[in-house]
């Protein structure tokens, strides 16, 4: 029953999206103007219907209704409830439904509250949003119906991949999706502004909260994903330049650029065409990311879809949406003037450098991710990995980070470096001292060295905009910027330190034996069997201590899941202010004679990673900076709306 | 994040404990470091840039798959025998193809990978120069 209700809601939502598109487009003509009034309510109801469909899906998953094919394929009655619910979006169909739901709700919200822009621009925006949604509704209903029934009903479901049965991962995809879909709103605003040729500060101000919101979620999603990979995969790596990771990084890079250029457009009415272009690019990257992950083209676990029909469907959507938007841009770009001018040394100038560099990094990541696919199509398999992305990315990231240290202290329009020389001397000195110290230590490769020294220099540089300010009256968005830039510095220090100073130890030890990694001594006290709701495990009891301190117990596990059958290594982490001790229990070590019985030793993998938590702390700081900026912007908008209503109210009373 | 899964699935299906032990005894350095830290660092550097052929998008330095273990052992043994990392990479490429190395070589197929960053550099430079030349000229005009 619930499944049919969900399906019906989905069809209705799709129909309303069609109505929203047609009405929005017709309302732009003089004869259809009367249709304009229904667009906003339709957008709102469409969002609610999509939400209803999604809630139905969650319901059937929570109930483990095995007559629904999707549940039977991806769930299991013995799973903990939270993972049953998370299972609703841990698969292709469910995640696409989540996508349209968020998109519908976001569109409905825009329709409800956004009144700043001229009405025709809003109608075009909502029509654009409906157009994109419609494509995804069609995809769901035709190629990946989440509510399909199964007959006969199986006795038990297939279960969810154990590596995905982790709280962090349960909420990682929805976080990224919120980001992706937030960018769809920016995309629709860009389309709306292009159609009605209204590209100006108002457009940037209306779009900015959405870009900020999307960017916050993307930042958190990437940070969480990286930490998940770090502790769950059991080898201590935190970024692999894997296509699926790149798929989330690309929209982030574009959104970061868009955020900064929208700032310029809102404050200074410059960079108009560029901002619109980035609005289109940012969502295009979200769609390309979704295509890469969902089409099965990468054949990794994220690519649940192995059906080429789906791949071609998404590819067609991609071509229509991106192609259409770019065509519109090409047609209208000439009529969008560039806006205000500015000098090289100015806030705008620094932001332009930031934008160009971010876009170049985006270009490299995009090309490096797609090239192996092209090569494969031409019959040769190549791999592009860290040895390519790291140096090529750094080529643009390093100048960008230098400009990032300087930019925030510059004035709008024009400035001189002399005026800021004194203030910037401190970060410059810190960087030089940092490089000197690292060279003296020796053995630090170039990229970690640059990362560390830029990171420490960014910390004083990022708080510079606060000098000469009354801190109590400093607007929230300024605090947000300072915090986010500080986060970049902090993350860089973590990355540099992890690459340069990590210590690894692989050993096979008897019970009671002690080994050492970095400043720690680790004793394998015992091996105990433990059982969870759908797994059994061997748990190592490790006593770890540093110097004379009392030992702390770490319990890494080697888990065996039975539905589906699979082994995972649950790492145990010990966090200290200056780093993390990372312990993994491998299997029983092989005996000295080939094929002989084991000799009672156990494999341990141990790492001491100095300052590694700073990577994710930095990511969280960046997102927090975004939250502050968003709060500041929204509060200012609210104040303005309240003021406007008051004025309107007074006028009305006086008029009476 | 991702990839491992298929790999682990494959690993756990294929590698029942006994099998894993066999695997490890034919690959003594799969889970064992070289005694010389300098040699181990060299080996580690190379392992991080070699692809685990059984997994998707993972280096042999962070995979539990049996083939990754064998390859780690091979790399460590050869480094210990005094071979240079690039020689080992070359040998592996001859044996498994370019796919095994994460560091693309410049070939008739892969040259665009290296041309694109150069082109982006040039493009960034031209964009910035154009923007600022004109911008500066206008600003000077404003002042006059």
UniProtKB/TrEMBL annotation, chain A:
One of its GO terms (biological process) is cytochrome complex assembly. It is found in: Cell inner membrane. One of its GO terms (molecular function) is heme binding. InterPro entries: CcmF_C (IPR032523), Cyt_c_assembly (IPR002541), Cyt_c_biogenesis (IPR003567), Cyt_c_biogenesis_CcmF (IPR003568). It is a multi-pass membrane protein. GO terms for cellular component: plasma membrane. The chain crosses the membrane at residues 43-62, 96-113, 122-143, 177-197, 209-229, 249-267, 274-293, 313-331, 352-374, 394-412, 424-441, 447-466, 478-496, 614-636. Residues 89-295 form the Cytochrome c assembly protein domain. Keywords: Cell inner membrane, Cell membrane, Cytochrome c-type biogenesis, Membrane, Transmembrane, Transmembrane helix. Residues 315-633 form the Cytochrome c-type biogenesis protein CcmF C-terminal domain. Belongs to the CcmF/CycK/Ccl1/NrfE/CcsA family. Required for the biogenesis of c-type cytochromes. Possible subunit of a heme lyase. This is Cytochrome c-type biogenesis protein CycK. It comes from Novosphingobium colocasiae.
UniProtKB/TrEMBL annotation, chain B:
Residues 1-20 form the signal peptide. CDD domains: CcmH_N. GO terms for biological process: cytochrome complex assembly. Pfam families: CcmH. GO terms for cellular component: plasma membrane. The keyword Glycoprotein does not apply. InterPro entries: C-type_cytochrome_biogenesis, CcmH/CycL/Ccl2/NrfF_N, CcmH/CycL/NrfF/Ccl2_sf. Residues 25-137 form the CcmH/CycL/Ccl2/NrfF N-terminal domain. Coiled coil: none annotated. The keyword Metal-binding applies. The chain crosses the membrane at residues 109-128. It comes from the Bacteria. Keywords: Cytochrome c-type biogenesis, Heme, Iron, Membrane, Metal-binding, Signal, Transmembrane, Transmembrane helix. One of its GO terms (molecular function) is metal ion binding. Possible subunit of a heme lyase. Belongs to the CcmH/CycL/Ccl2/NrfF family. This is Cytochrome c-type biogenesis protein. It comes from Novosphingobium colocasiae.
């Amino acid at each position: 029953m619930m499944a049919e209700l969900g399906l019906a809601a989905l069809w209705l939502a799709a129909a309303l999206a069609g109505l929203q598109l047609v009405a929005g487009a017709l309302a732009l003509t003089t004869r259809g103007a009367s249709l304009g009034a229904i667009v906003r309510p339709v957008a709102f109801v469409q969002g609610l219907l999509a939400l209803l469909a999604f809630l139905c899906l969650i319901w059937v998953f929570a109930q483990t209704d095995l007559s629904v094919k999707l549940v039977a394929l991806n769930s299991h009655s013995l799973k903990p409830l939270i993972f049953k619910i998370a299972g609703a979006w841990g698969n292709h169909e469910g995640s696409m439904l989540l996508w349209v739901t968020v998109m519908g709700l976001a569109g409905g919200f825009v329709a409800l509250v956004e009144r700043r822009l001229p009405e025709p621009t809003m109608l075009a925006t909502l029509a654009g949003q409906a157009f994109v949604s419609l494509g995804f509704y069609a995809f769901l209903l035709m190629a990946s119906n989440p509510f399909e029934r199964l007959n006969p009903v199986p006795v038990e479901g297939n279960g969810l991949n154990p590596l995905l049965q982790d709280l962090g991962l349960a909420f990682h995809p929805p976080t990224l999706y919120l980001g992706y879909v937030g960018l769809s709103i920016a995309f629709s605003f860009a389309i709306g502004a292009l159609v009605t040729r209204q590209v100006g500060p108002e457009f940037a101000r209306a779009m900015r909260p959405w870009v900020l919101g999307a960017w916050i979620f993307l930042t958190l999603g990437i940070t969480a994903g990286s930490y998940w990979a770090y502790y769950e995969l059991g080898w201590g790596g935190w970024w692999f330049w894997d296509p699926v990771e790149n798929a989330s990084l690309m929209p982030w890079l574009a959104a970061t650029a868009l955020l900064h250029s929208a700032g310029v457009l809102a404050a200074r009415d410059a960079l108009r065409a560029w901002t619109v272009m980035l609005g289109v690019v940012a969502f295009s990257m979200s769609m390309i990311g979704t295509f890469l992950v969902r089409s099965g083209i990468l054949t990794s676990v994220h690519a649940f879809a192995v059906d080429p029909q789906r791949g071609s469907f998404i590819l067609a959507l991609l071509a229509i949406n991106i192609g259409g938007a770019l065509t519109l841009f090409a047609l209208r770009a000439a009529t969008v003037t560039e806006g205000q001018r500015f000098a090289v040394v100015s806030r705008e100038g620094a932001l332009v450098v930031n934008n160009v560099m971010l876009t170049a990094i985006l270009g490299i990541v995009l090309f490096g991710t797609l090239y192996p696919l092209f090569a494969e199509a031409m019959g040769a398999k190549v791999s592009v990995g860290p040895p390519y992305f790291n140096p090529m990315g750094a080529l643009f990231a390093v100048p960008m980070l230098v400009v990032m240290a300087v930019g925030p202290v510059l004035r709008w329009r024009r400035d001189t470096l002399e005026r800021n020389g004194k203030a910037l001397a401190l970060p410059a000195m810190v960087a030089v001292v940092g490089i000197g110290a690292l060279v003296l230590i020796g053995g630090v490769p170039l990229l970690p060295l640059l990362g560390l020294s830029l990171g420490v220099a960014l910390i004083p540089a990022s708080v510079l905009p606060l000098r000469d300010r009354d801190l109590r009256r400093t607007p929230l968005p300024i605090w947000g910027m300072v915090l986010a830039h500080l986060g970049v510095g902090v993350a860089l220090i973590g990355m540099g330190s992890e690459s340069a100073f990590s210590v690894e130890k692989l050993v096979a030890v008897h019970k009671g034996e002690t080994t050492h990694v970095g400043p720690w001594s680790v004793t394998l006290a015992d091996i105990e069997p433990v059982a969870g709701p759908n797994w059994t495990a061997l748990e190592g009891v490790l006593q770890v201590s540093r110097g004379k301190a009392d030992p702390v117990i770490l319990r890494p596990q080697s888990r065996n899941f039975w539905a589906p059958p699979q082994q995972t290594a649950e790492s145990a982490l010990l966090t200290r202010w200056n780093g993390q001790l990372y312990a993994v229990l491998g299997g029983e070590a092989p005996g000295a004679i080939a094929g002989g019985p084991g000799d009672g030793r156990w494999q341990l993998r141990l790492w001491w990673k100095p300052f590694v938590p700073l990577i994710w702390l930095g990511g969280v700081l960046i997102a927090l900076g975004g939250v502050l900026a968003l709060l500041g912007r929204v509060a200012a908008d609210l104040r303005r709306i309240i003021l406007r209503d008051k004025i309107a109210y007074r006028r009305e009373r006086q008029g009476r | 994040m991702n990839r491992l899964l298929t790999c682990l699935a494959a690993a756990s299906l294929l590698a029942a404990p006994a099998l894993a032990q066999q695997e490890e005894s034919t690959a003594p350095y799969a889970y064992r470091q070289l005694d010389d830290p300098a040699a181990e660092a060299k080996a580690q550097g190379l392992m991080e840039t070699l692809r685990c052929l059984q997994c998707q998008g993972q280096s042999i330095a962070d995979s539990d798959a049996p083939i990754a273990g064998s390859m780690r052992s091979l790399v460590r043994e050869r480094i210990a025998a005094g071979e240079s990392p690039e020689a080992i990479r070359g040998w592996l490429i001859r044996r498994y193809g370019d796919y095994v190395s994460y560091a693309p070589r410049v070939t008739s197929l892969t040259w665009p990978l290296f041309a694109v960053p150069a082109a982006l550099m040039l493009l960034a430079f031209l964009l910035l120069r154009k923007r600022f030349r004109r911008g500066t000229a206008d600003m000077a005009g404003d002042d006059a």
